[in-house]
Each structure stands twice: as structure tokens, then as C-alpha cells.
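Input sequence (347 aa), recorded before submission:
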Amino acid sequence: MPWVTTHRGLRRSYGSAMGRMAKLVVWVPAAVLTCLSAQAQQYGATGGMPAAGGGPSAYVQPSGVPVAGAEAVAPGLAAAPQPTLLPPPFVLSPAEQSQLERVLKAWEERSAAIKTFECDFTRWEFDPVAGSPNEPARISRGKILYAAPDKGLFRVDEEVREGRFQPAVLPERWLCDGRSIYEYRFETKQVVETVLPPELRGKAITEGPLPFLFGASAESLLRRYYMRVITPSNVQNEIWLEAHPKYQQEAANFLKAELILKLPTMEVFALQLFYPSAHPSTQARKVYQFERLKVNAVDPLRIFKEDPFKPNLPDRSWSQTVESSGTAPNGAAAPSIGARPMPQLPR
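Predicted structure, C-alpha cell format:
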């Protein structure tokens, strides 16, 4: 069984298959994907189970939160409304702030060296509304690919059914080629393209939701999140971080992220996301564990393989459509990539 949440943190409890029954007050994981998971409810709805997709959201920069390098509003044009700044969930001492800045700077320097990244992951989805808060409603496996500065692929191919991994009933796939985001909707056999606005091209990965790995800068993280180091005193060779969105628009995507980085490489180990809910007892969460990481790997056969960031229709029965980025009618937030109700699994 994967991590189990406690009132004040996370308790890592591995089942027999993982072979490590250590009850450590470890928090959870780590940093990966800017491509990963904003997982907001469609049109910003909150509560209950988040989108089953698990793929990254078609990110819309929170209104008024500047994108690094974006041009100023031209004279005579209406300025974006001011964002809603949320109160800090904690206050850091000067020593704690200094420690956080040192960690984020080291992380930034390590991230800057990443040109290509590849990993497999296992994802556990917990939905207290549908069942036990500590028993996953769904377990799935997938892969993440990244190429600097702005290409990414997120896919889920397998899920546990009848006690073993099998091909997913509805696979998940998302990719970014630097100019557009493509979501594969397997239930309708559509590839939906969302064209990125010019100010996000070349930086959609780092300015998108959860920029905790690919090119994340300390300045950007501190601008967008309340963060602190939460590594327990009895844990070695890991750094634990906690992040809360500073702005209401981004808090609609996730309420809190808990991350684990491995030392000395500052590589990803795991990530846990908590989603907005009307009450803590109904709060859904997703846990990702990352394995078989390859950073800047040299693959001499890659030149003979298909470009993983090139969108293709799986077969002739599929179609491709284009959706504009921005906001939905009546000012609602644009729907998330992969935002769809989670199928209820047989019990």
C-alpha cells in the first residue's frame, strides 16, 4: 500500500510487494512534472474526486500573475484584473527562509542542467467520497518524457484490474511540442489541440502548473507558492518540501503539494497532490512515485525512432480539433486537460 496521510504529515507504509514496512513520518514526493497534474475539476469545480485524467492541465496563467518575460500591457488596453492573494498557511523564521532559498537555488542549478528527462511512474488515486481515504480507488502506471525547453509527454497505459496491471480501459496521453498542447481523448477518439499564447511558447513547461522540475527557478517558485522545508529530523539523504499556491486561481488546481527530492542528485522520488474540498474528510489526493529516471541519457538509436513529441492520430477513426486557450464562456476557467469524471471501479 502506498503512502497514507496522517493529520500532520505522511506516513510511508510499503506493502509486502514493496518490502519496506518502515513506519516513517516521511512526507511525500517530489517534483516532477510541470507537465503533471493540475487536475482541476472541469471549469474550476471543486470538491469530490479530481479529474481522473492525471495528465497535465491546459494551463492558464492565473490572472494578474506575471509570466516571466511576458510583455507589458500596451497603453490603452484593459489590464488584467488583480489576482486574489491567499493568506500564508505558515510564517517562516529568517533561518527557515534562508534554508528554503538555499535548497531552491540548488534545485534550480540542477534543473538548469537537464536537457532530456525520462521516467516511469506509478500513481495511486485516493477518493474518500467513493471509499476509504487510505485505500486507493485506482492504481495506474505510465511514463513521462521531457526535452528542454518546452517539450513534454505524459501518458498512462496500465491500471490495476482484478488484482494485476492490465491495459488501461481509458489510457491517458498528453504532449506539448512547444507551440501547442495536445490531449488524447480516448473515449471520443479525439486529439484536442490547445494553441499556446505567444508569451508561453518556449516556457510553457516551466510556467505551467507545478514547475517543480523542468527548469524551475527559485524566483518563480517563491513568486507563485508559499513553500517550506519539512524534512523530519530522522530522515537522511532526502529533502522534503511543501508548497501551497499563493493565488486563488492556481489553488483551484491543487490545494497543496508535498515533494521529496533525493540527495545528492536532487532527483525526483515522489509527489503527492491534495485537491480542493469542502471538508478535510472528503479531500482527494494523488500520489506519484517515479522510477527508472534517465537524465540527459545518450541513446544512439533514438535517431531511428519516432519523435515522441509529434502528435499523431492513433488510427483513421480518430479526429483532431483545435480549442482556443484562455477562458471559457461566462468567465469560467478553461477546462483542464484530462478533466473528466473518474470511473467508479467495481468493489
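Checked by second reader. The chain has one domain: 4-60+103-297+307-331.
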